[in-house]
TrEMBL record:
Record bears the keyword Transferase: yes
Origin: domain of life: Bacteria
Cellular-component GO terms for this entry: acetyl-CoA carboxylase complex
SUPFAM superfamilies according to UniProt: ClpP/crotonase (SSF52096)
Protein name from the UniProt record: Methylmalonyl-CoA carboxyltransferase
Pfam families: Carboxyl_trans
Segments forming domain CoA carboxyltransferase N-terminal: 17-273
Organism of provenance: Streptomyces cyaneogriseus subsp. noncyanogenus
UniProt xrefs under InterPro entries: AccD/PCCB (IPR051047), AcCoA_carboxyl_beta (IPR034733), ClpP/crotonase-like_dom_sf (IPR029045), COA_CT_C (IPR011763), COA_CT_N (IPR011762)
Length: 530
């Protein structure tokens, strides 16, 4: 551990300004250097960057302004009184990302393992308050060993202050958690309260109780990464929205995400000039999406055809893959895309897909991001596991999120839109501003085969040739109730459009809706399904 510069002998240190400036520069050099070369080598040996290297990658070069660099803890006992490094294991301040103000706090694992004590927590509280007051995003770079045990319950109280501020800032400023090392126990709740969680493979883990406790209580043997590693949280728990192999790529993607988000809930997301013509047609869509409703295709290819330059940032890419949630741009303006994924589980809605899409819709609504919904959904996933797991209340989360959203909302029905899933996926009846359909659309209570089996069950059973009768009655049902213009004739779809013109239609519609204003009823807050 590097020696901390103590005040010079005497009551007031050096007696002249130059002497005091030299003392300041020496103290700052110690704070910037951190605990020493050995600790830095150990950090690098684990494949991890130091705290200031990380901040340098996140923020525009030379823009970082540090707050409370000389803060030191005041605790005593257990050897703490002789170990009082500057920063107290967390670097806080603000800078810019592409010229826009962003606040940051970053744990320094080299100092007390990044563990949180009273002074450490107070620094974080201050920077969180500053971010909220300034109306600017907050990014936390997490690499800490949890509460500082030597400081006892005071450290735990520090976490409470962080959680309270996370909650107050929710929906007001974007909050992004970047997991670059361990995050255990109560510390894991702060990232869970934020809008987005990034993780780096191998070096980052999150769990409430570690492998040793799990082994003692349940007898299960598991590694740190097996319990709470990046891939586990990306694929199984849904805790991590984005996962990358290295810190450099991870922090570059954090910068990209920030470029898509507004500074706060009172401003619009950043718009940029687009070289992709708004009237660009996409004839490839006629080939990408088969007319036969049972044939799968990759919705990612459809989204790429519609958005500017084919670029989009998928959220929760590896969790609940039967639905796609992504941020993209149309004519330079940011939109949120929610889309069925026929390539996975035929694009049905289930518990996890409903939760994933509901949270995404809420985030878009909170930060003034218009929502485009692309439907090809055969319904909710049937089964005992889904019903016992609470598909009713989980599906209601998505319904509540859409109904509560006041941003511009446009839905496009590509092929199937059956039953309750059609209603839930931003149908006109729950408040979509505009609803369009392709000529391949089928909007119905259920598929024709199932419907005919229910409605004409007796006729089919009594027929001399039941299979021929079933085929004829299915055809009649489709012609009567499932033709492409059935919903349009009843005003449930605003227009049936050429698939190749979808991009142009969306851009023109969003331009019209840009000045949309909608007020919710006066209330403290709603009580969404849990």
């Amino acid at each position: 551990m590097a020696t901390v510069l103590e005040p010079s002998a005497g009551l007031a240190g050096p007696s002249d300004a130059r002497g005091r400036l030299a003392e300041l520069e020496a103290a700052r050099a110690l704070a910037l250097a951190g605990p020493g070369r050995k600790a830095t080598q150990a950090q690098h040996g684990k494949g991890k960057l130091t705290v200031r290297e990380r901040i340098g990658l996140l923020l525009d070069e030379g823009s970082f302004r540090e707050v409370e660099q000389f803060r030191r803890h005041r605790a005593s006992g257990f050897g703490l009184e002789g170990n009082r490094p500057y920063t107290d294991g967390v670097v806080t301040g603000w800078g810019t990302v592409e010229g826009r103000t962003v606040f940051v706090y970053a744990h320094d694992f080299r100092i007390f393992g990044g563990a949180l004590g009273e002074a450490h927590a107070q620094k974080i509280h201050k920077i969180m308050d500053m971010a909220l007051a300034a109306g600017a995003p907050l990014v936390s770079l997490n690499d800490g060993a949890g509460a500082r045990i030597q400081e006892g319950v005071g450290a735990l109280a520090g976490y409470g202050g962080i959680f309270r501020r996370n909650t107050r800032a929710s929906g007001v400023i974007p909050q992004i958690s970047v997991m670059l090392g361990p995050c255990a126990g109560g510390a894991a709740y702060s990232p869970a309260l934020t809008d987005f969680v990034f993780m780096v493979r191998r070096s980052a883990q999150m769990f409430i109780t570690g492998p040793d406790v799990v082994r003692t209580v349940t007898g299960e043997e598991i590694t740190h990464n097996g319990l709470g590693g990046a891939d586990v949280h990306a694929e199984t728990s849904g805790v991590a929205h984005f996962v990358y192999d290295d810190e450099e790529t991870c922090l570059a993607e954090v910068r990209y995400l920030l470029s898509m988000l507004p500074s706060n809930n009172r401003t619009a997301p950043p718009a940029v000039p687009s070289a992709d013509p708004p009237g660009r047609r996409s004839p490839a869509l006629l080939e990408l999406v088969p007319a036969e409703g049972s044939r799968p295709y990759d919705m990612h290819e459809v989204i790429a055809e519609l958005v500017d330059d084919g670029e989009f940032m998928e959220v929760h890419e590896r969790w609940a893959r039967n639905i796609v949630c992504a941020l993209a741009r149309l004519d330079g303006s940011v939109v949120g895309v929610v889309a069925s994924q026929p390539q996975v589980l035929a694009g049905v809605l289930d518990i996890e897909a409903s939760e994933k899409a509901a949270r995404f819709v809420q985030m878009c609504d909170a930060f003034n991001i218009p929502i485009v919904t692309l439907l090809d959904v055969p319904g909710f996933l049937p089964g005992v596991g889904q019903e016992h797991g609470g598909i009713i209340r989980h599906g209601a989360k998505l319904l509540y999120a859409y109904c509560n959203a006041t941003v511009p909302r446009i839905s496009v029905i590509l092929r199937k839109a059956y039953g309750g899933a059609y209603i839930v996926m931003d149908s006109q009846s729950i408040g979509a501003d505009l609803s369009f359909a392709w000529p391949t659309n089928e909007i119905a209570v259920m598929g024709a085969e199932g419907a005919a089996g229910v409605i004409f069950r007796k006729q089919i059973a009594a027929a001399a040739d039941p299979e021929a009768a079933r085929a004829r009655l299915v055809k009649e049902y489709k012609a009567e109730l499932m033709h492409p213009y059935y919903a349009a004739e009843r005003g449930l779809v605003d227009d049936v459009i050429d698939p190749a013109a979808t991009r142009e239609v969306l851009i023109a519609s969003l331009a019209m809706l840009r000045s949309k204003h909608a007020d919710l009823p006066s209330r403290k807050h709603g009580n969404p399904p849990q």
